[in-house]
Amino acid sequence: MDTSFNTTKEFAEALDKADVLHHVRDRFYIQPNEIYMDGNSLGLASKDAEASLLNALEDWKKEGIKIWNIEDSKYYHYSKHIASNMAPLIGASPEEVVVVGSTTSNIHQAISTFYEPTKDKHKILVDDLNFPTDRYAVDSQVRLKGLDPNDAVKVVKSSDGVFIDEDAIIDAMTDDVALILLPTVLYRSAQVLDMAKITMAAKERQIIIGWDLCHAIGAIEMDLTQIDADFAVWCTYKYLSGGPGSTAGLYINKKHFNRSPGTAGWFGNKDETQFQLNHTFEHQRDASGWQVGTPNILSMAPLEGVLNIFNEVGIHAIRTKSLHITSYLMYLIDEKLTDYGYSVGNLRDDFKRGGHVCLVHDEAYRISLALKDKGVIPDFREPNVIRLAPIALYTSYEEVYKVVEILEEIAQDHLYEQYSTKRGLVV
């Protein structure tokens, strides 16, 4: 990968002409006079997602209750249908993936399935930089077991508040740890944890381990089959562009199919007996057995379409461009913005960083507001981080160039000073 960049606009234009994914941009809804850099929070709508959503809506309009039986019971088995196209993105077999719930509900499902505390082995190991919902779910599950999170939740603390030391995680895998939940990519700093190294260490100590893939799926390459983690959870509205609140994903390693789900529901029952409506649960022995209620078809439908794009392009090509365009962004920050107090807050090594750039500035919040008024959509994370995510499928190199120009203008002319430091409800 050639990273011999320069700072001219003409160079950015040349990179776009050479970009093998540039044509895919036309399949997404790009708003005029706007540069969207927040696909790590909510991906843009695609024409493919729109088409599959409208198709599902038409099927409902035409068929009513009969929708469950059309196209060889496609919607009745919708989770399996979509899972078959999602599984390649994480290196899993389709039978190990279920499209269901939300990230948080899937954490509850997984922990209630795998967390079996004993007197000697009762702790859940987490880190102090993961997204808060993971911790909320962990603490709640611990309380449901009659335990105190202050005792039963073991927290690996970051030494600098930005990155997590992988060796510190492994050192914390003591005999009293029963389960581990960690992020693959840290949501602020974009640090990528070595899943293989950490998972192997957990297995050697006979500890159940699961991964939060929210900032990883659709952005980096993974092979859960090779890693052999016990479970994983993820959302689908970020890099996957499944739409606001689109149905999440859950991975259950096939070696655990004989376990009973922690929270059982009728869509986790065997197909053969589901509509016999027996009061005895008969667990479907694959990941679909971890479904609970009726699938939310209209929240799943956009995934059917957008995954066509991912499978046509391939995650390797996506990751290759992502690394290149974020390298270009970091180069421009280094060359043009450091004199104005900006710095790159993520790790530089390709294998250690995810799909977004962590831009640090003391006035990050007010700068993010100024960016929005200039037509750039970033997002802000406390205390001083602007996350910029050039998405491989729809962000151009010229847009990255323009964003840096605007960031320079905002700092040079102190445009951020006209904005209040008071935080909005959604930042």
Short description:
With 427 residues, the chain is α/β, with parallel strands linked by helices.
What does this structure look like?
The structure is a single chain. This protein is an alpha/beta fold and 427 residues long. It has 2 domains: 9-30 and 314-418, Aspartate Aminotransferase, domain 1, CATH 3.90.1150.10; 50-312, Type I PLP-dependent aspartate aminotransferase-like (Major domain) (Aspartate Aminotransferase, domain 2). It is 37% helix and 11% strand. It is built from 15 helices and 13 strands. α10 links the parallel β6 and β7. The model has no long low-confidence stretch (mean pLDDT 97).
Question: Helix and strand layout, with pairings?
Answer:
Elements: H1 9-18, E1 35-36, H2 47-63, H3 70-73, H4 78-86, E2 97-99, H5 103-114, E3 123-127, H6 132-144, H7 149-152, E4 153-156, H8 166-171, E5 177-183, H9 195-204, E6 208-212, H10 224-227, E7 231-234, E8 249-252, H11 271-274, H12 297-313, H13 315-336, E9 343-344, E10 357-360, H14 364-373, E11 376-377, E12 379-381, E13 385-388, H15 397-412
Parallel strand pairs: 1-11, 3-4, 3-5, 5-6, 6-7
Antiparallel strand pairs: 2-8, 7-8, 9-10, 10-13, 12-13
Helix pairs in contact: 1-15, 2-12, 4-12, 5-6, 13-15
Features:
427 residues, alpha/beta, Aspartate Aminotransferase, domain 1, Aspartate Aminotransferase, domain 2, 2 domains, seven-stranded mixed β-sheet, four-stranded antiparallel β-sheet, 15 helices, 11% strand
Could you tell me the number of beta strands? 13
Distance between the termini: 35 Å
Helix content: 25-40%
If helices are DSSP runs of H or I spanning 4 or more residues, what is the number of helices? 15
Number of domains: 2
Q: Which CATH architecture of the largest domain?
A: 3-Layer(aba) Sandwich
Q: Output the helix-strand order.
A: HEHHHEHEHHEHEHEHEEHHHEEHEEEH
Q: Tell me the strand percentage band.
A: 5-15%
Neighbour order of strands in the largest sheet:
2-8-7-6-5-3-4
Report the radius of gyration as a whole number of Å. Answer: 22 Å
Give the overall silhouette.
globular
